[in-house]
User: What shape does this take?
Amino acid sequence: MGTRARKSENAIVPKINIIEQQPTEEAMKHNHIISTPEQTMYIMADLSPKDRDGTEEDEYVLCTIKVDGNGVINIKPDFNKGKKAYKIETVSMGREVFEYTIEHASKEMNRLEYDRERKMYRELYSRHSEFLSACVGYEFEMPPPDVLRFLVYGEIVSAKDFEYEDLYIHYFVDLPRNWTADGSQQLAGVTHTCSTKVEDRDNVAYFSFPFSFEMFYKNDTINEERKDLLPRWPQFFVEVLSLDSWQRYRTEGYGYITLPSIPGVYMETLNCWRPVGSSVTSELRRYFIGGSPELAEPTFVAVPSTFEGSHLSKFGFRTETTGSVQIKLNILQQSQAFLESADTKKKMGSLLDRLGTTAAQMNILNVLDAFQKARQRMISARESLVKDFKELTLTGAAGEEPTLATMDSPRS
Assistant: This one.
């Protein structure tokens, strides 16, 4: 980065110039500037007087032509194309002024040469495309049959309206029954510590912390005792904590969200709360020496996955509303069930019903399919009977008494 001096009354103050017109090789390596190899050619003119020999000062650059490694040709100055001529003024005693133009003197291609060049470029691009396809591959990596791959690419954007500054967030994902993850997959993490700033009377800490999870769902068993076969989706939990300069940490709040079951992009806000003690002593301890009541089981914020009862009572549990955490989620799903056609018998169930379908489930779907077909036939027969009855009623009202043979005659 270049510098230039600015004169002052008592000293010379360096002024930074952010643009380096001619960076050195060392500066290019230091600033990681992309340098494409190129070749340069100069078209020059000797404008020295006739009565003396020319020197380097009498040589002037008329045009600079550069060709880089990508085959791009750069000409400076550009072709005149009917514009005013360029001027050069010499530095000799006479101060002579010369005018010159730059024109494209190559012959224009005829139609045959133009088509031949386009054909060559098409073949070149086609070969390059085939090369890239060979590097990437033609097939997607598919999960096993009857398995749903669930991918989450998210970001902890910000946290606001918490009591103390210097926040950091501990987050994790709770997997319900029939959900699994790879052994090397990290389903928990901790963000960096972030200071807050005031925005519209709110204390906001911007984390911009990315995270990603990959989970799999497969239901191999069916519980005959439970009628609801709807699976539970994974839940994302956060625990917001603060750490001050005296190394006193405090729990600022807990929050959670059930991950969306539909693919897409979501911007969600997690409203948080924290448990409070039953006396003033806990709040004084929180203020002076740090520390605060914590949850022994963080999933108690929602319904714990290990809970098997029908009712979960939190009566008498004292809490206090704190701030909120904003997260951004990108949800992706992949399964071989998506490739099935819409007219299969499995269309009666959702995707998760099709995953891990057992013999009992197949029998239920077959019965439902047969019931739907029989219902459609009954509705068609009823509509036909009502239509015929209306026709007979109208005929009797017109004075034409239908005969027995007419009523018993078969309809075509």
In short: The longest strand covers residues 202-217. Residues 1-13, 345-349, 401-412 have pLDDT under 50 and may be disordered. DSSP finds six helices and 17 strands in the chain.
